[in-house]
Write a structure and sequence with these properties.
This protein is of the alpha+beta class. It has a single domain, classed as Carbon-nitrogen hydrolase (Nitrilase/N-carbamoyl-D-aminoacid amidohydrolase), CATH 3.60.110.10. The chain contains five helices and 17 strands. It has a six-stranded mixed β-sheet. It has a six-stranded mixed β-sheet with strand order 8-9-10-12-15-16, with helices on one face. A three-stranded antiparallel β-sheet has the order 11-14-13, with no helix packed on it.
């Protein structure tokens, strides 16, 4: 039987005015619900500029507790609208440590366990290890009224192990809230970063038989120009819908989750796994 869910990805520009960003994002959540969205995902660090592009910056005032202002605001909206909302934010934990985190609120306004970003980049303009602790919450699957899904954050998207772990734990959809773009004035010798970004996530969809939803911001922030192009793809990597490269947008897409089972049964990528062989052996002289 076909099993449908409508999701929304909210991509926007961000300024230093966190109060204005919170208000604008709430309005965009309402727009998503009006489009029929049942699960709504915001972008990575939705309320702040992407401050990890700087090696050191005093950003403690931007951190939020969980529960806190964002969760209170969106919990009310989730309950009012009857939707699930994924809120990626800059978290200050009870232990005083800081995390790049995602909070999930169900349709009743209940806070579900927080996911903390597992893989943190440490490269020029992406100095995340200077600001965040590595998440150790594990890969979580949120079994909601509408669908079972996992949330992985930005740099997590490059690691096939994370997508596979989420799938084996029961995810039908993987949401990837991100903050990624091109460096202004720099041409990478590696080629098109955007093409690689999209391709690797579509590959995870195919290899695992899951739908993938990527949510990215837009606009220029100092040396980074974020490329937007949030998208949803099915479990064989086909793009269902893609957002603009430069405009704020509420992207809504209807997903047929029964397609997951068709791909898994037809291609056998999970059924024919050989975990007993997944060890390295060094060949050659010792």
């Amino acid at each position: 039987m076909r099993r449908f869910v409508t999701i929304a990805a909210i991509q926007s520009r961000v300024s230093n005015d966190t109060a204005a960003t919170l208000k604008k994002t709430g309005e965009m959540v309402r727009q998503a619900a009006q489009k029929g969205a049942q699960i709504i995902c915001l972008q990575e660090l939705y309320r702040t500029i992407y401050f990890p592009q700087y090696k050191r910056m005093d950003v403690g005032n931007w951190a939020e507790t969980v529960p806190g202002e964002s969760t209170r605001t969106f919990a009310k909206l989730a309950q009012e609208l009857g939707v699930v909302i994924i809120i990626p934010l800059f978290e200050k934990a009870k232990n005083g440590k800081y995390y790049n985190a995602a909070v999930v609120i169900d349709q009743s306004g209940k806070l579900l366990p927080t996911y903390r970003k597992t893989h943190l980049p440490q490269d020029p303009l992406f100095y995340e290890q200077n600001y965040f602790e590595h998440g150790r919450s594990g890969y979580q699957v949120y079994k909601t009224q509408f669908a079972a899904f996992a949330v992985l954050i930005c740099y997590d998207q490059w690691f096939p192990e994370a997508a596979r772990a989420a799938t084996l734990a029961g995810a039908d959809i993987i949401f990837y809230p991100t903050a990624i773009g091109n460096v202004v004035g720099y041409k990478s010798p590696d080629g098109d970063w955007h093409a690689a970004w999209e391709t690797v996530m579509r590959g995870h969809a195919i290899a695992n038989g899951v739908h993938v939803v990527a949510v990215n911001r837009v606009g220029r922030e100092d040396r980074l120009r974020f490329w937007g192009q949030s998208f949803a793809c099915n479990s064989f990597g086909k793009i269902i819908k893609r957002a603009s490269a430069s405009k704020e947008e509420v992207l809504a897409a209807k997903l047929d989750l029964s397609h997951n089972q068709r791909i898994r049964e037809g291609w056998g990528f999970l059924r024919n796994r050989r975990p007993d062989t997944y060890r390295f052996r060094i060949a050659g002289p010792r």
